[in-house]
Structures are given as C-alpha cells and as structure tokens.
C-alpha cells in the first residue's frame, strides 16, 4: 500500500512538471496556431537563470527567501525570452506554418548549443533548499518534498491561468480568440497583443518548470528542456489543443501511467505506454480529451 501511495504522489509530481510545460504550449497553439518547438528553450533559460541567480544575484540564494528571489529571476528571464521570440521571430511568420516550425526548431537547437557553450554540456548540481532534499511521511509513504513542491506549484498555476482567462479582459480575448480568431479580429480587437501576452504566460510557466524541475532532479543541463518538451507535446495532444484543463487531465494520466508502468514493469516501458496512449487517443478521439470537434 505504501508503494502505491508513493507511486501515486511521485507520479502526480511528474504530471505537475509536464503540465507546467504543456500549459503554455496549449495556450500558444490554441490562440496563435503556433507549434513552438523552441518552448523548451524557455525552460532551459529559466533553469539556468535560477541556477546563476542563486550564486551571484544579491539577495538570492539556495534557501529561504533567497531561493524565492532566484526562482523569480529565472521566471522573469524565461518570460523575457518568450516575449522576444514572439516579437522578433514569430510575429512576422503568423499563418506561415512551415516557416514557424523551421524557425522554432532551429532556435531550439541554437539555444541548446548556446547553453552548452556558456556552461558546458555536463549536468551541474542545482542549488536547492535543504527541505526539498527531505521527505514527508504521507499515509506511511516517504514522499520527496521536491515532488510535493511541483504539485503545489502546478495547482497554483492552473488556478491562476483559469482565473485570468475567466475574469480579465485579455483573458476573455484569449478565450474568444481560441474559439474564433477571425471573429475577434473582425470586431477590431488587436489580437497581436494577446499573442504576445500568451507567449509571456507560456514562457513564465516553462521557466518555473525549469527552476522547480531542476530542484526535483537535483541537476540542470542544456538538454533538460528538449527531453521534457517531448512529453509536454504528448500531453497537449492528448488533452486537446488549446485546452489548459485538458492538458491538466492528460498530464495526470501520463505521469501516473509512466510512474506505475516503469515501477511494475521494466525501465523505459512507461515511455512506450505513454506513446501507445497517444496513439489510442489520436485514433479514437483525435481532438483530445477536452478538445472540440473541428467544424467546416
């Protein structure tokens, strides 16, 4: 029983990490119709900026309020990177899907190379608060605090995004744009500002995932964003393009499936089962769990 509880909570921690990355991807594709393969770069920038700030930024550190300052710096760096990418590279290429894919894939590869050239290709120990190295006893299971931190962060981010979409003017514009972008434009609303805002939100969530994911794993590396981006795309497709709630459901399914199968089966079998789940969803419900059927 203890093993089931531990696997469930660690699976939810992994799901939380996937959701933090996938939520921005889902919003960006839902509104701007952009498959952003450079999204992992925002995660990497957030992780390395947090790592750098913890050791160099005045007031920042690896424990207490200093860690909060370091994470805030990393989130700000990831957000800034996302905004610059949208303004400089993506904005001129809206409605040009092939060019978008080529540019974002190229930027992703260039970003990894830049991180490797700056800080090396090897993983580096990540400064993290002492309490995140410890465990908490829940119903007899020793659960790592790093995973619990991810779960709390993901719940807060989901609540914040849903509140923003529900109760703010730009949130309403984004929701309307996801449903019918042409109608919003015809009403005289400049959706380009909403595009930039969505990229900023996605960049912030990805950067937070980079910082807290590095706490969870204990290291930071240039390839970290790319490996997580693969599962984030799977989560977005399973959940339904443009649906943040669908991404949350899909992240839970993927995280739990991966954790349980890897434990009770052989190592790596969980990844295969996740891909199999993706195939089943695409065959039986192509629009995803919470996606809507496309109409002509």
TrEMBL record:
One Pfam match: BPD_transp_2
Taxonomic source organism: Micromonospora maris
Family to which the UniProt record says this protein belongs: Belongs to the binding-protein-dependent transport system permease family. LivHM subfamily.
Membrane-spanning segments: 6-27, 34-53, 65-89, 101-121, 148-173, 194-217, 229-256, 263-284
Entry superkingdom: Bacteria
UniProt-listed CDD domains: TM_PBP1_LivH_like
Keyword terms, alphabetized: Amino-acid transport, Cell membrane, Membrane, Transmembrane, Transmembrane helix, Transport
Protein name, as recorded: ABC transporter permease
Topology within the bilayer: Multi-pass membrane protein
Subcellular location: Cell membrane
Gene Ontology BP, a term: amino acid transport
Broad class of the protein's primary localization: membrane
PANTHER family: ABC TRANSPORTER ATP-BINDING PROTEIN, BRANCHED-CHAIN AMINO ACID TRANSPORT SYSTEM PERMEASE PROTEIN LIVH
GO molecular function term, any single one: transmembrane transporter activity
GO CC annotations on file: plasma membrane
